[in-house]
Amino acid sequence: DVVMTQTPPSLSVAIGQSVSISCKSSQSLEYSDGKTYLHWLLQSPGRSPKRLIYQVSNLGSGVPDRFSGTGSQKDFTLKISRVEAEDLGVYYCAQTTHFPYTFGAGTKLELK
Amino acid sequence: EVQMVESGGGLVQPGRSLKLSCVASGFIFSNYYMAWVRQAPTKGLEWVASITNSGGSTYYRDSVKGRFTISRDNGKRTLYLQMDSLRPEDTATYYCTNPWERWGHGVMVTVSS
């Protein structure tokens, strides 16, 4: 199975601050079609997950452009510019290149 | 409005069965692969099973293979998860999703004697 390692496990931030979350996979996530199926999700407290970014860098529908994703092969980063209160929760990276699909353990974003 | 509404969860004894349903609306259900993802209490997300848009192919994580069956009825816009031989470690909130664009609200399954 592809192991997804997210760091840090938690972040304490002030509103308006920028933060980055790292996600490293144990195998390359580039599929035979040339696309890389690495995604970022946010689970706000008590809510279902919500997709933020798909295929490394594509913004999901309705997601503010304060969120951005970069990376390739095995090394990926989610950046949040100017954190807002609604951004708090647990962030997960997820891969759908290889079965079984796997998720990172999550990064909890909290208010300082 | 896009909606996915799960049902069928509850408390069940080990070894028994349960069938989850997820009714979709607001998008062309038959165009999408679908999946079930679960989340044990206070834990992270875990993919359970996926099915192609036609239903012709299915995929499972090893721990549920042979016990769970994912299926769909495109005419009813409904995704199913038949769960047999349930174990305490299957206790979780189960979400349906079209990986990972849209998510249901989740349904709780508790396996306990």
Written overview of the protein:
The complex is a heterodimer of chains A (112) and B (113). Chain A is 0% helix and 48% strand. The termini of chain A are far apart. Chain A is mainly beta. In chain A, the strands form 2 sheets. In chain A, strands 2, 4, 5, 6, 9, 10 and 11 form a 7-stranded mixed sheet that branches. In chain A, 36% of the residues are buried. In chain A, strand 9 (89-95) and strand 10 form a beta hairpin. Chain A is built from no helices and 11 strands. Chain A has strands at residues 4-7, 10-13, 19-25, 38-43, 50-54, 58-59, 67-72, 75-80, 89-95, 102-103, 107-111. With 113 residues, chain B is an all-beta fold. Chain B contains no helices and 11 strands. Chain B is globular, with a radius of gyration of 13 Å. The interface between A and B is medium-sized, with 22 and 19 residues.
Key traits:
heterodimer; A: 112 residues; mainly beta; seven-stranded mixed beta sheet; four-stranded antiparallel beta sheet; 11 strands; globular; B: mainly beta; 51% strand
Strand-helix topology:
The complex is a heterodimer of chains A (112) and B (113).
Chain A: E1 4-7, E2 10-13, E3 19-25, E4 38-43, E5 50-54, E6 58-59, E7 67-72, E8 75-80, E9 89-95, E10 102-103, E11 107-111
Parallel strand pairs in A: 2-11
Antiparallel strand pairs in A: 1-3, 3-8, 4-5, 4-9, 5-6, 7-8, 9-10, 9-11
Chain B: E1 3-7, E2 10-12, E3 18-25, E4 34-39, E5 45-51, E6 58-60, E7 68-73, E8 78-83, E9 92-98, E10 102-103, E11 107-111
Parallel strand pairs in B: 2-11
Antiparallel strand pairs in B: 1-3, 3-8, 4-5, 4-9, 5-6, 7-8, 9-10, 9-11
Structure at a glance:
The complex is a heterodimer of chains A (112) and B (113). With 112 residues, chain A is mainly β.
